[in-house]
Amino acid sequence: MKILALSGSLRAASINSAVLRAVKQLAPASIEVRLFSGLGNLPLYNPDLENAPPAVARQLRNEVAAADALLIASPEYAHGVTGTIKNALDWLVAFEGFVDKPVAVLNATPRAHHADTALRETLVTMSATLIETASITLPLPSANISETDMLAAPEIVSLLSGVLTKIQRTVKLLPDMKPFLGSSVYIDSQHPAIVAQAAKLAEGAAAEEEIAKRCFEFVRDEIKHSWDYRLNPVTCKAFEVLIHGTGYCCAKSHLLAALLRANAIPAGLCYQRLTLDGDQPPFCLHGLNAVYLPQHGWYRIDARGNKPGVNAEFCPPLEKLAFPIVNPLEQDLPGIHAEPLPTVVKALTEYQTVEQVYHNLPDVAATEQ
């Protein structure tokens, strides 16, 4: 696997460049890390040169296209990204080889959060696939630390080795998992509020499974089920569920999928067809999630919210859902969906109150799946 590393600083003693050199030294034989050294030679971006870009711009584009992923480390100047890295990205805006490229961002200065946030926003706008789990802030003890010092610090070595592992894992997963990692209208995982909450939930977590559990418990416990609490407004998009703190089961599943995807953890939607009362029709769809965990594969979780008689948990590989199928008329509908079913979207967008939704709950015959 090939990783192209870009430093947003031209200083010879740049701590960001030192971080990338340390990553290069830590890379196992299966990963080649190449530091691009020509950013200082790039002229200011000029759209008039798109049809005949200068040689160094062509070189940058060729190396980006050849790389399986990018790794960027860049400082903050006056609460903004450096001109060096912004100019490099400007030369890539119209380049098709950058679209969907997996990118991780390293922040070498914990206090420099403005540039880190702005850089991520730019990358998402450019249609990069941001690897959130590999995009970390390094707790470096000094702004003058060298790569030799970094390589002698067990905590830094562990963090940087973890970055490489997470980039490699994401690159391997992307072809099959791309639909379950993307942001969309209703699973809007790149909405700033979703990204911020996802990062908060992932902070300090040692592994993807721990992040997934935190996301699950947040949605299960902190987001109120609309009918349990009789709470308006009716929500459907993930960011709406997060902002208003409420949603029906399907809406809550949209939020959980978005939080997981924002942390580069593949997540999809699943459905059960349940009876509303006892063992007789009518039926309705109950929405839950499936998350891909490297140790277990696809694992179903149900964040609808616990209450007396309902006790969903995150305890892989054991599945503990809100509603086990015990009635022969009910069933788990097959498949893991990247997007919500149209009937679900219809119910959650056409009706104005939770009472109206309750009297028009979505349903679909199993034969339609």
TrEMBL record:
<keyword id="KW-0285">Flavoprotein</keyword>
<dbReference type="InterPro" id="IPR002931">
    <property type="entry name" value="Transglutaminase-like"/>
</dbReference>
<dbReference type="Pfam" id="PF03358">
    <property type="entry name" value="FMN_red"/>
</dbReference>
<dbReference type="Pfam" id="PF01841">
    <property type="entry name" value="Transglut_core"/>
</dbReference>
<feature type="domain" description="Transglutaminase-like">
    <location>
        <begin position="198"/>
        <end position="303"/>
    </location>
</feature>
<keyword id="KW-0288">FMN</keyword>
<protein>
    <submittedName>
        <fullName>NAD(P)H-dependent oxidoreductase</fullName>
    </submittedName>
</protein>
<dbReference type="InterPro" id="IPR029039">
    <property type="entry name" value="Flavoprotein-like_sf"/>
</dbReference>
<dbReference type="InterPro" id="IPR038765">
    <property type="entry name" value="Papain-like_cys_pep_sf"/>
</dbReference>
<dbReference type="InterPro" id="IPR005025">
    <property type="entry name" value="FMN_Rdtase-like_dom"/>
</dbReference>
<feature type="domain" description="NADPH-dependent FMN reductase-like">
    <location>
        <begin position="1"/>
        <end position="133"/>
    </location>
</feature>
